[in-house]
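Reopening this one. Same input as before:
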Amino acid sequence: MITIENLSFTYPKADRPALQNMSIRFETGLVNVLIGLNGAGKTTLFDIISGLYKPQHGHITNLPHIQDMLYQIQGTFLSALVKGKEYIRLIYNISGKKFINDENYIIEQMNLKSDREKELLKDLWNKKIGQMSVGERRWLYVITLTQLKRSLYIFDEPTSGVDPSSRIKIYKRIEELSQMEGNVIILSTHHLHDLKFITCKINVLHKGSILFEGDYQSFISLYGSENPDIAFDNCINNLNQEVITEAQVYA
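Same output, byte for byte:
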């Protein structure tokens, strides 16, 4: 478990803190999901955890060494001329895994189970990054990055621009990572309906503070709607409530 206590951070010349006395626990054995409006502080938190920024107040415990982290940012800086197989070779070289220039071998190594994913990887094998759709690139990046063995994985909106079928497969792959002993998985998303299908803990970040932490069913029950988008809207608009902790949710 990674524990963050009373974390605060303000950007230079900013009118208000990006994070304000924020406390949160990221657990093993499930997917820790961070949701919030654009600008709520999600990426700022990820940047602090990964060491890009230093917190101005508060502290983080049980954080692994930076070399034992994987941080998938929303944009990946690769030449548009790089082919899918060349990107996979790069990640395999980083991970120390053996790369063979054969898509069928890589399909087996990646444990791709559905025919659609197998065909998609074959389609992207010789396709240049610049010729791929946003969703195709995102799928290729995430599925390949999960081949790296790390203690902490951070995925910043890993399903942005991805079709519904591929989103579910990405979430399931990330969920599999969370079941490996000692792994901590953190991701941010705006696709709340998909969270129903994975074992996760939802953390609502709003104006730099945590409003809610708990499982999916507790989230929709507490905020009065089977539609998680409406539940989220109810949560962030109830601005006078006290911060709801996981202990209160399960009481």
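So the earlier flakiness isn't reproducible anymore. For the record, Confidence is low (pLDDT under 50) at residues 239-251.
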